[in-house]
Amino acid sequence: MNIIKPDGTEVEVADDYVLQKGEKVTEEGEGGEGEEKKLNAILDKKIDKIVQAIKDTPQRKVIGVEANIEKSVMETDPYYRKFRPFVQLSKKMEFFVKDVVILARGGVPTSLQKALSEGDDTAGGFTVPEEFNAEVIRYSSEEAVVRPRARVIPMGRDIVRYPKLDQSSDQFAGVELFYAEESELKAASQPKFGKIVLSAKKLIGLCPVTDELLEDSAINIANFLVALFGEALAYKEDKMFLIGTGMAQPLGVINATGINVVSRNTSTKIVLEDIFGMDTALPAWAEAGAVWLMTKAAREQVLFIGNTNTTNKIQLLYPSLQPGIPATMLGKPIVLTDKLPALGSKGDILLGNFAHYLIGDRGVIQVASSIHDRFRYDETTFRFVKRHDGQPAIPKAFVVLSP
């Protein structure tokens, strides 16, 4: 291709040459191609090159611009994670929060639309994402007494049966061990096993949420609900794992058959003989990991404790001078809780190894809501449902003080 420069000189250039100011393409006599036609041809070539370059270059993902993350970004600082576990939500979590807000305003969440179209019962609400469920359980475990120390087993169905060791006799698990001479007839030994039956119990919680919160960001709503559900779950679970009757609720340690019971020496009081009696009643195999559970009223009794025959006091409880390290009594940690019975009642102080308490978890949390219950207060009531069960696997690992 030839061009004419501003000074009138004609030079030959490549076909994809870009014209500069004042330059123009020469006409080709007989061919009749004018300057406009030449320019169009050059542009077509450039466009073809750009399109081909796009096809040859693979798509690149830009960090921070990804629109759909598979897992939420969690807070790494232990202190701040207590208040704001989620830093960035996954798409699944964003959809969950959006459904929560829709549900709170009387609409039909996306999670329930398919069920409605198929005629299913949606009164139970919709299931939360696994990320949310895991954070609620983590939060409740950090706040709880029993769950972080117990053995937790997922329940694949409503009723699950587990074998347990029968230690009612002097033989460990019913197995008799003995030495025999060569060629001597060996006696048969039959292990004795009991059975634990876990039946999923439905725990229902109700909590009001203000309309102002529902206008907040998705992350703030998710963090708020985790704390709200986690605190409530931790408190109720602990209480039932300790004092539950086993009727439509978990079986608490205090009401379990087969636990060690020490009768107190003085009514409504805790004296030195009571503490020594409880410590003696705990089997040696349950010592490692055992803790004292007591109310603050009970702690007041054992801070400086006396026996039944004298007014002299001795110190059994040794407070810790380091934050986060519990006080000890007879070498075992002391955990304070207000979920035990009143002073003077059975179980006002408890000694046990909760590694021998079994918790069954059935599925994840479900959420539903109502705008009518607290309508006058500009609040929405959320209902969450958690299905679980619990009972001592080996009752002899626990000792309680009784009247």
Overall description:
Helix content is 27%, strand content 24%. With 403 residues, the protein is of the alpha+beta class. The protein has three domains: 2-45, no CATH class; 73-175 and 192-243, no CATH class; 253-358 and 395-402, hypothetical protein PF0899 fold, CATH 3.30.2320. A seven-stranded mixed sheet has the order 11-19-16-12-15-14-13, covered by helices on one side. Strands 6, 7, 10, 17 and 18 form a five-stranded mixed sheet that branches. The chain has a three-stranded antiparallel sheet with strand order 2-1-3. Strand 17 (357-370) and strand 18 form a beta hairpin. The protein is elongated, with a radius of gyration of 36 Å.
In short:
With 403 residues, the chain is an alpha+beta fold.
Features:
single chain, 403 residues, alpha+beta, seven-stranded mixed beta sheet
Please describe the topology of this protein:
Blueprint: E1 2-4, E2 10-12, E3 24-25, H1 35-56, E4 73-74, H2 78-81, E5 86-88, H3 91-104, H4 110-117, E6 126-127, H5 130-143, E7 151-154, E8 159-165, E9 193-199, E10 201-210, H6 211-214, H7 218-243, E11 260-263, H8 272-281, E12 291-294, H9 296-303, E13 317-318, E14 328-329, E15 332-336, E16 349-352, E17 357-370, E18 379-392, E19 398-402
Parallel strand pairs: 7-17, 11-19, 12-15
Antiparallel strand pairs: 1-2, 1-3, 4-5, 6-17, 8-9, 10-18, 12-16, 13-14, 14-15, 16-19, 17-18
Helix pairs in contact: 3-7, 5-7
